[in-house]
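Schema walkthrough. Field components (list of strings):
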Amino acid sequence: MSQTKGQSSIQFAEAPYIIESSSIVGQKEGEGPLGKLFDSVEQDPMLQKKTWEEAESELQRKAVQKAIDKSNLTQQDLRYLFAGDLLGQSIASSFGLMQFQIPLFGLYGACSTAGESLCVAAMTVAAGYADNAVAVTSSHFASAEKQFRYPLEYANQRPLSANWTVTGSGAFILGTKRSKARITGITPGKIVDYGIKDSFNMGAAMAPAACDTIYQNFMDFNRSDKDYDKIITGDLGLIGSKILIDLLKEKGFDISQIHMDCGVEIYDGDNQDTHAGGSGCGCSAVTLSAYILPKIHKGEWKKILFLPTGALLSTVSFNEGQSVPGIAHGVVIEHC
Amino acid sequence: MSQTKGQSSIQFAEAPYIIESSSIVGQKEGEGPLGKLFDSVEQDPMLQKKTWEEAESELQRKAVQKAIDKSNLTQQDLRYLFAGDLLGQSIASSFGLMQFQIPLFGLYGACSTAGESLCVAAMTVAAGYADNAVAVTSSHFASAEKQFRYPLEYANQRPLSANWTVTGSGAFILGTKRSKARITGITPGKIVDYGIKDSFNMGAAMAPAACDTIYQNFMDFNRSDKDYDKIITGDLGLIGSKILIDLLKEKGFDISQIHMDCGVEIYDGDNQDTHAGGSGCGCSAVTLSAYILPKIHKGEWKKILFLPTGALLSTVSFNEGQSVPGIAHGVVIEHC
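Field assembly_structure (string):
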């Protein structure tokens, strides 16, 4: 049976539930405005491991284990893992999830992977391919700086437009068992490239992609800003959020009253020196788990559009003078 | 309706068809045993671009365009793209597929991505989420050497156990319209790590994962080596293929008479100096399109298990002393 909706979206005939979730973060995130909401705040940025990459793997392992522990499920109940991170060849996921011995679909959409993994896990459960599946993503400030910018030891200065990569991992168990939140539809995004070449201004690079996916979601589902209690982007930060609101105004929609950005929420920009805000696959994932889902469970927010955003660059593409294209995957989450 | 099969597999209630496919390769692949079968042999390794990475992006763009041209479909008929490559942050896919303006799911499973992309595209079409979806993967000898080993200018010597990364891209349009080949089931793989640390012997690192997925496929579908005309691995090469056959014998199955490896088929090892054989996301994809699918269309092979294999390493994980874990995703393709 066709479950397509409009040009790009999917409306699930049997919407999968978000059965349980978890959030593991680092010290800085623990000191931020959402600090008390996370499942676990790791005081050691190395997580007792030898390298930053192993530390990030450990974040993913802990997030999945925590989600299992919080649910009434066992490891054997989880049929597939959908996972990704920002590191080259996704090694945080591979080395972090290996021990679970669950079939793995590796995903890459930069910071939008948090949305992509929820999309594919939801598609899998809704189709009857699994009773339960896990979506998990991570990022780590130090492994990301090492990968994309400079080693921490270099102590470089950061422009005010720069984002701060969140140290954290969020895991979500999707399944057919009833809970208080379900994914009723998705709008997978396409790549949007406005030709921005400044990798220290990723909010500006990703805002057009967020605009494109939100607009597509409105068209496909015949909705507008009036139909959502919140539209929550991943990590546009202060600058990207302003651009997004302006771009959508040009298309006739004013989301300024209902828009929220995980990258803005997770830190106290005035006191934590995080400049434009948080970013990374972990940013939107831990914010969804710790802050957004509880509000949906309570019915405080009945219907939201959750929209992690990604900047599709690598150091190689950047050094070769390529632009920074963006992508955003939309996930409609409803109270039930 | 549940479509799960056994512990890890999916049996599609409405199996999607492989409507069309394409194969674009480089000069060396064009000079190999399958040379005359490919859709296009590019004589310029740069594909008229400025960098190796842009050249690989161009391979993907050409592969998708060729698959569209060969089908009776238009770009607008293709609802989703499922794509991946070997480069950090999957830039070959992002920059190669941007212009199609089709929603993109980025995937990463090293060289197993060719199988992973077919799995997720098949899951999507079979569930009624799309009438048509595209799976596409690529690799390029020069971008891979630069990424994983040494710049070509360094002219390093290669051990005999090393694989040769295939320059090529294969694209597959899956859909609901009847054709002569369909994907009837899949067995997504889990990560298997035997602790091998030699990145110049990836066949040995991936063989245990291939063994695990084949065995799981046999158990889940209650099949054996007798049920397949061919079991075709992605890029184990000569050394990995031998290990796979030995490992499966230990589990009671002899696949020696029906096993084939795309990495072994694509080059003439005696005359092309390719050592253990071909590898890369492009290797199994172009071999499937140019060599395997025509035999399925003719009914020469009625049922095969196609099993691209991936080595989940990065230069960072390798330099930090980590092992090279493997993964293999199984795709059952049947004549119809």
